[in-house]
C-alpha cells in the first residue's frame, strides 16, 4: 500500500558520529516501526551540534516531506545535549503532550526519566518527536506512544478527522 507513513530518523550522538559506538538506538527505532505501516526514508547519525540537527530536521520535513521525524539522544543535561533546542528552533506549532506522555510513562519505569528534556513539535505536516538516547529508553518510549502518534499523523495529514474514544 502507498499509505505508509514516511519516517526520518536522526541519532544525535558525538560518539556515534565519530564511529566510536555502534548506533543501536537508531536501529532499534527501525525495528520497532512495523514495516507494513512505515517507510524509513533516511537514518543519520549526527554529532550533538544544534545547527546540524536543525538543518537535517528542516531537510527531512521540507524536502523529504517526512510524516514523522524521530530523534534519539541529546535530550539530557550534558552541556553537549541540544536536541530539544534544535527541535524547538524548527517548530511551527508545539505538540507538548507527546513529550509529556513519554516522560509520564517513563517515570513509572525510572525516576531518571525526569532528566530527559525531549520535545515534540509540528513543522508543516511533519511531526517531530525527541526520544532519549539509550536503546532501552527508545524502546520504552516509542512502543508507548506509537498508536497515538499514528492517530495524530492522520489528523495532521487530513486522513482522519474523527477522534474515536480510546
Ligand atoms: N545511539 C546509541 N546507540 C547505542 N547506545 C547508545 C546510543 N546513545 C546512547 N547510548 C547508550 O546510552 C548511554 C547514555 O547515553 P548518552 O546520551 O549519555 O551518551 P554519551 O555516552 O554521553 O555520548 P554521546 O552523546 O556521544 O552518545 C550511553 O552511555 C550508551 O550506553
Ligand atoms: N523510558 C526511559 N526514559 C528515560 C530513561 C530510561 O532508561 N527509560 N533514561 C533517562 C536518563 S538516565 C536520562 S539522562 C535522560 C536523557 O537521555 P539522553 O541524554 O540520552 O537523551 O533520559 C531519561 N529517560
TrEMBL record:
<dbReference type="Pfam" id="PF00994">
    <property type="entry name" value="MoCF_biosynth"/>
</dbReference>
<dbReference type="InterPro" id="IPR008284">
    <property type="entry name" value="MoCF_biosynth_CS"/>
</dbReference>
<keyword id="KW-0548">Nucleotidyltransferase</keyword>
<feature type="domain" description="MoaB/Mog">
    <location>
        <begin position="8"/>
        <end position="152"/>
    </location>
</feature>
<dbReference type="GO" id="GO:0006777">
    <property type="term" value="P:Mo-molybdopterin cofactor biosynthetic process"/>
</dbReference>
<comment type="function">
    <text>May be involved in the biosynthesis of molybdopterin.</text>
</comment>
<dbReference type="GO" id="GO:0061598">
    <property type="term" value="F:molybdopterin adenylyltransferase activity"/>
</dbReference>
<dbReference type="InterPro" id="IPR036425">
    <property type="entry name" value="MoaB/Mog-like_dom_sf"/>
</dbReference>
<keyword id="KW-0808">Transferase</keyword>
<protein>
    <submittedName>
        <fullName>Molybdenum cofactor synthesis domain protein</fullName>
        <ecNumber>2.7.7.75</ecNumber>
    </submittedName>
</protein>
<dbReference type="InterPro" id="IPR001453">
    <property type="entry name" value="MoaB/Mog_dom"/>
</dbReference>
<dbReference type="InterPro" id="IPR051920">
    <property type="entry name" value="MPT_Adenylyltrnsfr/MoaC-Rel"/>
</dbReference>
<keyword id="KW-0501">Molybdenum cofactor biosynthesis</keyword>
<comment type="pathway">
    <text>Cofactor biosynthesis; molybdopterin biosynthesis.</text>
</comment>
Amino acid at each position: 500500500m502507498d499509505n505508509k507513513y514516511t519516517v526520518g530518523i536522526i541519532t544525535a550522538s558525538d560518539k556515534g558520529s565519530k564511529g566510536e559506538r555502534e548506533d543501536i538506538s537508531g536501529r532499534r527505532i527501525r525495528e520497532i516501526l512495523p514495516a507494513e505501516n512505515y517507510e524509513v526514508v533516511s537514518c543519520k547519525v549526527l554529532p550533538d551540534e544544534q545547527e546540524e540537527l536543525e538543518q537535517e530536521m528542516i531537510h527531512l520535513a521540507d524536502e523529504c516531506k517526512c510524516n514523522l521525524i524521530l530523534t534519539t539522544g541529546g535530550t539530557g543535561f550534558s552541556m553537549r545535549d541540544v536536541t530539544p533546542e534544535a527541535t524547538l528552533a524548527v517548530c511551527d506549532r508545539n505538540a507538548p503532550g507527546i513529550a509529556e506522555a513519554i516522560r509520564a510513562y517513563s517515570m513509572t519505569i525510572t525516576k531518571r526519566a525526569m532528566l530527559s528534556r525531549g520535545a515534540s513539535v509540528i513543522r508543516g505536516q511533519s511531526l517531530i518527536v525527541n526520544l532519549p538516547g539509550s536503546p532501552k529508553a527508545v524502546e520504552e518510549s516509542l512502543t508507548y506512544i506509537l498508536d497515538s502518534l499514528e492517530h495524530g499523523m492522520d489528523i495532521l495529514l487530513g486522513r482522519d478527522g474523527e477522534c474515536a474514544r480510546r
